[in-house]
Amino acid sequence: SAAANLRPGAEQKVVFVTARVHPGETPSSFVCQGIIDFLVSQHPIAKVLRDHLVFKIAPMLNPDGVYLGNYRCSLMGFDLNRHWANPSPWAHPTLHGVKQLIIEMYNNPKINLEFYIDIHAHSTMMNGFMYGNIFEDEERFQRQAVFPKLLCQNAEDFSYSSTSFNRDAVKAGTGRRFLGGLLNDTSYCYTLEVSFYSYILDGPTPAVPYTEEAYMKLGRNVARTFLDYYRLNSLVERPLSPAPKTR
Description:
Low-confidence stretches: none
Largest sheet: 6 strands, mixed
Order of helices and strands: EHHEHHEEHHEHEEEH
Helix content: 25-40%
Number of helices: 8
CATH topology: Aminopeptidase
């Protein structure tokens, strides 16, 4: 049976995830893989999320750059993450396609585009963290902080203290900034960054090197944070026997 949120005429809450706009940032693919694998799994949380939200995922925004082994640019030498404002169907086809889809959803009264998350990797910082936007409206600014705060509780390698909100000019062509300006105040747009090399847990522990599995785990934790965000916890089928506490 179709989930209630997919029935004709049903209002849809959409979470849009993109990754690998910078081809050298391979960890972003593993984080995205973790999100996808979790969402299509038989995990009780994944079932609840599929029933309540629609996830749209573009796992590789720069496939030609990835194929060529470029670090940051596309086949034609563009840093795609500076061209969201006016992407050309010829020069930036993936951005153009994703942007058209997002605008289509934005203009559809039955669709609420609630989240846009663009996944990157960071070459100098540790841990996972987010960039968000700056709003004049204090309440909207506070609401935007809710998701990264919840993610920080779910993921030991995610750092809320490294999460920052900015509007500097150099970032104006990024997905987060452009869509943050386009979408209305019920949409939240983030860049999710994860370190290329390691994360530090609380306390005097040395840095823990990231593995592919650890990146995928961060992705799983991103997905399950939507359960907390939408307060859907009561809908998860609990195992009958008390399960051991796992983080």
